[in-house]
Amino acid sequence: MTLSRSRLGTAGPEVSALGLGAMGMSGVYGPSDREESLATLHAALDAGMTLIDTGDFYGMGHNEMLIGEALRGVPREAYQLSVKFGALRDPAGGWSGYDLRPASIRNMLAQSLQKLRVDVIDIYRPSRLPPGTDVEEVIGTLADMVKAGYIRHIGLSEVGVDTIRRAVAVHPVSDLQIEYSLISRGVEDEILPALRELGIGVTAYGVLSRGLISGHWSGTRGQGDFRSLGPRFQDGNVDANLALVEALRQVAAGRGITVAQAAIAWVAAQGADIVPLVGARRRDRLAEALGAAQVRLAHDDLAAIEAAVPKGAAAGERYPSFAMHDLDSERTSA
Q: Is the dihedral of CA 317, 322, 323, 325 positive or negative?
């Protein structure tokens, strides 16, 4: 299989039409298998998946070191690394806010370069820009790192229109990373039109809503699985959301594809400027996701999928209330 390529906005790199989100390989969804994670990373590269997304706080550095090991010996031009930074962790694995001071950004970047075993990061982005953040200072610091040759492109994550406009006034932005799926469509109202106006691409995470709309959700959450805090997975919400999945399953079966493939292909069909990130941490799930790249949804297919999972039908917010507070993307523009 050869994946097609997409360019991330007018200022960004050319990447594979599907990217690999590596977060789940570092304990966020409970224990993961190290050897299977490495094998999955290699299988993604072999399939032509060039974009690998991580965060320096995934597993407190574990994810970057795992990726660095997997990429040893792989030609640098064969992949692009997208790295989020800024979130703080504690020794118990808890969350401690954000640090976006210029000296901290340079320190985090230096550590990511070492852990990933590279000289330059393709896309570097703050994971969140909480209320009160000096956006111009953050982007200005990143612009200095671009000039110094440590970053190729600046990205954003989970920010709204006003913040996007402030950022691009300082330096070009390649893409916005934001949750986008059949049950998380808020980006369509204001953010996506603004991105297209400004020539900024989208890397869409959560396309399977953390497994909820994958067609494989078993209802079990192991120790350390942060989905136990997710409102959409709570009693009273999860059954309603799984009913949407069953409706989607009927549509997908009629077209000879899986639920996950229908959900991923739907996101990809929303525009050539959108690159879905699939969070596979096993080779079988990766193979299923890659199959979505071969799916071409006609107008009738899209209509049937959206009838099965209507916009706004999901029960529960996409994050717990304390995390929603930090989502600049959830604030409407002035």
A: positive
Q: How far is CA 193 from the centre of its chain?
A: 19
Q: What is the pLDDT of residues 6-25, one digit of tens each?
A: 999 998 999 999 999 999 99
Question: Which span out of 2-16, 188-202, 220-234 was modeled with the highest average pLDDT?
Answer: 188-202
List the catalytic residues: 58
Residue 123 near residue 82 (C-beta atoms within 8 A): yes
Alpha-carbon distance 98 to 21, whole Å?
A: 21
Helix and strand element counts for the chain (H, E)? 11, 13
Listed residue (88, 85, 151) closest to 118, CA to CA: 151
Residue 10 CB neighbours (<10 A): 12
Structure-token pair, residue 165 = 């406009």
**Which residue is listed with tokens 């032509």?**
48
**What's the topology of domain 5-330?**
TIM Barrel (3.20.20)
pTM: 0.92
Could you say which DSSP state residue 29 is in?
A: B
In this structure, the chain runs to a length of 334
Reduced to 3 states, what is the DSSP secondary structure of residue 204? Answer: strand
Among 97-106, 204-213, 313-322, the range with the most confident prediction by mean pLDDT is 97-106
Sign of the alpha-carbon dihedral angle for 119, 125, 131, 132: positive
Domain boundaries, the chain: 5-330
Q: Is-contact 194 285, C-beta < 8 A?
A: no
Using DSSP's 3-state secondary structure scheme, residue 332 falls into: coil
- The whole-angstrom distance between residue 323's C-alpha and the CA centroid of its chain comes to 16
